[in-house]
Amino acid sequence: MRRNKIFTILFFSIVFLMVTIFGTNIFAAQYPEKEVKVLVGWSAGGSTDTLARMLSAELEKEFGVKFLVIDKPGAGGSIAWTEISKSKPDGYTLAMVNIPDIYTIPLTVPSTTWDLQSFEPIASVITDPALLAVNSESPFETLSDFVNYAKEHPYELNTTNDSYKGDYWLVVRKLEELADIKITNVYFDGSAPVNSALLGNHINSGMLNVSEVFPLVKAGKLKVLGILTEERSALLPDVPTFKEQGFNIILSNKRGLVGPKGLPQEIRDVLIDAIKKAVASPDFIKKAEETKMPIDLIVGDDFSEMANRENEMMKKDYKENPW
Question: Of 197, 226, 245, at which residue does a domain stop?
Answer without folding.
Answer: 245
